[in-house]
Specification:
Blueprint lengths: L1 H14 L13 H10 L6 E4 L5 H7 L2 H8 L4 E4 L5
Parallel strand pairs: 1-2
Helix pairs in contact: 2-4
Length: about 80
Amino acid sequence: MSEEYLSRFVKIAEDQGLKARSHVVIGPPAIRIIEESQDLEGALVVMSSHGQSGLERWIVGSVADKVIRSSRRPVLVIPPADH
């Protein structure tokens, strides 16, 4: 299911002339995103954020924040699409 969902975004990127791929792994999200991106020279991490703030963010934590602070790759955070 995840692979199918992500394949739509890969196709959109490729249609725009970009080299893109998706890869689904299991584990703590921030750690796995950082680990996977370290092995890709020239990688750009693109992720969406729920935009949580205040107490909710402090309790739950922020994957995007952890990736931004710990990754050695550039990180682009976009707001979630309105459905």
